[in-house]
Amino acid sequence: MNSFVLPDDAEKIMLQAAALAERGKGRTAPNPCVGAVLTQDGRIVAQGYHRGPGLPHAEVDVLQDAARQGINPQACILWVTLEPCNHTGRTPPCTQAILQAGIRRVVVGTADPNPRVIGGGIDSLRDNGVQVVVGVAEQACRDLIADFRTWIDSPLPYLYLKLACTLDGRIATRSGDSQWISNARSREKVHALRERVGAVMVGAGTFRADDPRLTCRLSEADRPPNRPPDRPSDQLADPRTQPLAIVVGSNLPNTTNFFLLRERPGETIFWTTEAAAQSTAAERLRALGARVWGAGTGDRVDLESCLIRLRSELGVMDVLCEGGGGLAQHLITAGLVGEWWLFLAPKTLGDARAVPVLSGAEVPRMADAWSWRTSRVQELDGDFRLVLRPEPTLDHGQDASCEEGGCSPA
Q1: Where in the sequence numbering do the catalytic residues fall?
Q2: Are the C-beta atoms of 130 and 1 separated by less than 8 Å?
Q3: Positive or negative CA dihedral for 352, 355, 357, 361?
Q4: Share of the chain above pLDDT 70, in %
Q5: Distance CA 145, CA 245 (A)
Q6: Is the separation of the CB atoms in 342 and 372 below 8 Å?
Q7: DSSP string, 221-285
Q8: Is the peptide bond before 151 cis (omega within 30 degrees of 0)?
Q9: DSSP 303
Q10: Which of 33, 264, 327, 383 is the most exposed place for a label (fewest CB within 10 A)?
Q11: What global pTM score does this model have?
């Protein structure tokens, strides 16, 4: 018999494991984030998650937690968000650890999407007499590893899109004023997202209008926990640094009077066209220590090739785009957005000339609209954070490039 009867609150338990997995976001690449718990008599008695490459996987981490508490795992059910690995990498197979611990019942959120290993861990456990149930809270567990699926299926980094708008869909007034649409708690969430990515991207118009820093400014007390209490210090992931800053546009700045050029030139990359990358303005930026990458012809920047280069040359696995609406739409059109964080503020402008949340596309019929799946809704002191994921859509016939005029608020 390869399965068993689950408790009524099975999905709730798996979601607890998923919440643990979230703690590893931004630290586990190129591995997926994974969470695990052990239950005994329907109660969670141990917990663990993967913190980073070379560190214990979630299954081993939860067994270590059980050992510290003197809990016998043979009497427990193991819940893990992703299929246990059955191969040796930087660490031994998790299936081996499960079998050695004497665990006889395992609940898996979702199978491993890696075509080289899919189903192997589940089959190995079952072949050794372990009862395995697969597919509990599966969509939530699949959402956890959307980044991992991008990494194994393509040469691209995973891309987060963040925008904050009013109830009538505006990201700035007609004059370009946008501070602040969202409240302090929403902005804290944005900085938590910056803390997990390797680069933050804006369009050239946003760069000129807002003079952004593009840094994570969370206090140490506000940063996501890197380990539960009593976790040994040698199991910490690598310390975090500030994300790189990326500015997209064919028109490069002719002045150094911007924060990124004064304070962070060595951490700033300008994505521009091939012609602009050979200009005098580009040479001035390079002299300051900034990088200038040329890709694309005319006034269009080839976003996809720049993203691929960002991962291959600099090892950036996660990117956050913070606007404006034109750049955001180009990324959506090109199918490059993995996850959209939309902060909706209870404010209205009612001004047709205020800056729209997205712009640059031509959609004649509602049937041609881009479709999104809402995977999470969170209330933040009156604001709402919507986490949206793309649904399969029609081919809108546009490429992964960005025109200067459409990459940022006017």
Answers
A1: 59
A2: no
A3: positive
A4: 88
A5: 25
A6: no
A7: GGSPPSS-TT--GGGPPPPP-PPEEEEE-SS--S---SHHHHH-GGGEEEEE-HHHHTSHHHHHH
A8: no
A9: H
A10: 264
A11: 0.88
Tokens 């691209």 found at: 156
Q: Which segments of 346-382 are extended strands (E)?
A: 355-356, 372-380
Tokens for 239?
Answer: 């310390």
> In the structure encoding, which two tokens stand for residue 230, read together?
């009593």
Say yes or no to pLDDT of 106 above 50.
yes
Written as six digits, the tokens of 108 are 């898996």
pLDDT class of 219 with cuts at 50, 70, 90: low
pLDDT in the model for residue 218: 74
- Segment (H or E) for 143: helix 138-144
pLDDT averaged over the chain?
Answer: 88
Show the tokens assigned to 130: 């372990």
pLDDT in tens, 141-177: 999 999 999 999 999 999 999 999 999 999 999 988 8
pLDDT > 60? residue 400: no
Inter-residue contact 146 to 339 (CB < 8 Å): yes
Q: How far apart are the first and last CA of the chain?
A: 64
Tell me, what amino acid is at 338? G
